[in-house]
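<discrete_fold_record>
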Amino acid sequence: MFDFLKSKPKSARPLFESLGTDMHCHLLPRVDDGSKSEEETATCLRILKAAGFNKMYFTPHYQFPRFPNVEEDIKNRFDDLKLDLATNGVYDGPELAGVAGEYRVDSGFKERLDNGRFSLIGDKYLLAEFSLHQTVVGLDQVLFDLQMKNYDVILAHPERYPYYSASSHVLEHFKNMGVYFQVNILSLSGFYGEGSRRKAYEMIEKGWVEFLGTDMHNTLYAQALIDSTYDKKIEKMLSKHTFLNNTISEPGMPQMPGAKKI
């Protein structure tokens, strides 16, 4: 079933060894708009390893009503994937450290917050995302409510929200609140367009970005990641800036007060 794992991976430089951990991807098969099969997942994981990542956290979408995922089911699917990879062929990808989620602030978010139904990255960080099309009234209140329940919030890919500039007073307000920012690595290579690329670099230079993530969905993203390992501007940026990816704790560490472990 997994004979393709034995084939030689495409060439990629281990440019992201300093990060070590990828804390944002959609490689759990058949649960959202990411990987469609175990084979595709394993291929992407192998490429991530070649690019320098040694640890992975899966973060499938929780977005109502498009992706009405349930934490218990996602955890079971993650365990099944680990078992499949361990027992079917030679697995040569990163350590599969845990499964969390990328939570869209949408109409169902308040109920989720009230019930504490979140899966966290490393039992610590909650990865949140906004609409990619239009802002929502009251986002600062949502972030404040999360913090009042002792969640450490990471805002996913702020460079991709077209209604915020790199110097946005709203983003600056979020930073002053203590919200962490995670930029997509592929934004830095222009995968999402010049606007996102420019904003990503500007926010990094302002010192606003604590995490980099691949946000990998499939083999198209994986090929783009390979290409990014030869990007001299990304290489120079990594030599100048330090990120927190490799500080994410192992699952099983003491949980943040107010967070319900799934």
